[in-house]
Design goal:
heterodimer, A: mainly beta, B: about 240 residues, nine-stranded mixed sheet, 3 helices, about 5% helix
């Protein structure tokens, strides 16, 4: 026997089940318990940029809407900065970049209001350079001398949980009107099957109350199945 | 920068697969195509940050956060406590842990739950808390009851508390369920058995923790949660992560 690696193992996932709403979105489900519910306001009042609305429905493998989904969104601000210590800079006061919504129990429709995110800095390509600094390295040695990828096109990260989903599904929502940026996006281009890339692109669905609406339907299984990621 | 330090690859042979026939709802809700693997970018290594302004101190006390003044829910008074750690064994401080559950009779306060066991007027069934500097959290609650569900004709969920944890990045986001030591329904449950290995199932079973009970008040169960660990930044001389 070799030595044991002393890493712990990640706690296994379980489905969020049919009553996820009372736990994570009680107010949205009509249950008044907390002074303030988290996740209702993604961008906050001070966020710069274009106000948008995103709407959709989640469809199962039988073609029916899923009416008990909870979706979380995680996005950068209009300058491409995340509200996190490693997010690339400062964000507007009150900008959280995270929110969550539940589907309508009758129709399965969901939607959220936010600002359109800006392009986000991408990781660089992995090269074959040395992993550790050479002895004579300058202070600004950065490990790899290869080319940067293009910035990532504006996108919103989504995480979907529900009854019947054993481990949360990660996907990304891109924007139809960002064709040039989408064409060079390193993640979209990672998807070998070009016919699957459009499943990640939200369609412009007109203006409502002066706000651009984007439509993003998510298909869990089968025809037009949305691309999901192992992040 | 060559890119942010990544979190360790998720061991998807330890997690339940998407398609698990005996848990029937998964049949039409599981993607049929393979997941696309991403090298993590700033999009994945960041995630929402929460603070004490977001929640109230009573939010983790399910015995009192919905009860009328001077009253409390019916059921076995318990403390569920533990630590949130990463795979490197380090505590995850200041992270949001949310919990929800049925009452002592197995009934959820949810309009879609029509089980004939009654609602408890003094029990809401949800709570939330932030881990402390050592990754420690606790909830006070009543032990949930088992309840029947429409899967096979006669399926009963073991007593369980749903747990949701954020960690420090969106890639660590996790929802799971906490079960209780000694419950014979665990071995029969198709949702539990979506998890492929017994070892992984065992890691979801909270142990009776007599040392943490409050004598003449509450029994305690210990439930530690492990989130994904993080790789070191490759170009640093001294590896932060290892």
């Amino acid at each position: 026997m070799v030595q044991r690696l002393d890493y712990l193992k990640e706690t296994p996932s379980q489905t969020a089940g049919p009553y996820v709403h009372i736990g994570l979105a009680p107010g949205a489900a009509g249950f008044d318990i907390y002074r303030q519910e988290l996740g209702w306001d993604i961008a906050g009042p001070n966020a710069k940029g274009e106000r948008i609305r995103v709407e959709g429905v989640v469809i199962d493998g039988t073609g029916n809407p899923v009416k008990d989904v909870l979706i979380e969104a995680w996005q950068a601000n209009a300058a491409g900065i995340y509200a996190h210590p490693e997010g690339g800079g400062e964000v507007e006061d009150g900008f959280r970049g995270w929110g969550r919504v539940i589907t309508d129990f009758e129709t399965g429709e969901w939607g959220f209001d936010t600002v359109k995110p800006g392009p986000v800095r991408a990781r660089r390509k992995l090269g074959s350079g040395p992993l550790h600094p050479p002895a004579h390295a300058n202070d600004d040695w950065q490990g790899r001398a290869d080319e940067a990828h293009h910035d990532m096109a504006p996108h919103i990260n989504l995480w979907i949980v529900a009854r019947g989903i054993n481990i949360g599904l990660n996907t990304r929502m891109y924007f139809e009107d960002e064709g040039a940026a989408n064409a060079t996006d390193p993640v979209l281009n990672l998807i070998e099957w070009e016919s699957r890339r459009p499943t990640l692109i939200a369609k412009q669905a007109g203006m409502r109350d002066g706000v651009q609406v984007y439509r993003f339907d998510i298909r869990l299984q089968g025809e037009g199945e949305t691309v999901f990621f192992d992040i | 920068m060559s890119g942010p330090a990544e979190y360790y690859q998720r061991d998807r042979e330890r997690h339940p697969p998407a398609y698990t026939r005996d848990y029937k709802t998964s049949v039409a809700r599981s993607p049929s195509k393979a997941l696309i693997s991403l090298q993590q970018s700033v999009s994945e290594v960041t995630g929402p940050v929460f603070g004490h302004n977001d929640i109230d101190p009573i939010d983790n006390d399910l015995i009192h956060n919905y009860a009328k003044p001077g009253e409390s829910p019916i059921g076995e008074r318990i403390i569920v406590h533990g630590r949130v750690l990463d795979e490197n064994g380090r505590p995850v401080p200041n992270t949001l842990v949310e919990a929800w559950q049925a009452n002592a009779g197995g009934r959820y306060r949810h309009k879609k739950d029509t089980y004939l066991a009654p609602i408890d007027p003094n029990f809401g069934g949800c709570g939330r808390t932030l881990t402390d500097e050592n990754g420690y959290y606790f909830f006070r609650t009543v032990k949930p009851g088992a309840y029947p569900w429409r899967n096979w004709v006669n399926n009963w969920r073991p007593a369980h508390i749903h747990m949701s944890v954020f960690g420090t990045s969106f890639s660590q986001r996790l929802i799971t369920q906490c079960y209780f030591e000694g419950d014979p329904l665990i071995a029969q449950c198709p949702i539990v058995k979506t998890i492929p290995s017994q070892d992984a199932i065992d890691s979801l079973i909270a142990a009776l923790d007599m040392n943490a009970t409050v004598p003449l008040d509450s029994i305690a169960y210990k439930f530690d949660i492990v989130l994904r660990g993080r790789r070191s930044t490759l170009f640093e001389n001294r590896l932060e992560g290892n």
